[in-house]
Amino acid sequence: MKQNKPCFDEECSGFLDQRKQAKLQWLQYLNQNNVYHLNNVRRESSRYFRNRRKNIRKLKLMNLILKLTVRSEISKTCTGASITLREVTSLELI
User: Fold this and answer.
1) DSSP notation for 12-81
2) Which of 22, 64, 81, 93 gives 41 a disulfide partner, CB atoms 3.0 to 4.6 angstroms apart?
3) The overall pTM is greater than 0.70
């Protein structure tokens, strides 16, 4: 996972460090326990990254739906209101 992505945080960095340490340990001492440990760490970190990306996508989608709903409601009911559609479209996603 690239570090320049907005979903990358300290916890992601910790999972990457843990994965690297498990791989180095496996390369230094080739035994079955290190293989199991490496596989478990890989599985946990992949699951964390997958769930994190899924949750971020859900939040972005919900914000987009909310934004479009607000925009359509304003255009339907308040054509002469003090807020304009440009202000609504300039809202940033959380």
Assistant:
1) HHHHHHHHHHHHHHHHHS-SHHHHHHHHHHHHHHHHHHHHHHHHHHHHHHHHHHHHHHHHHHHHHH-TTS
2) 22
3) no
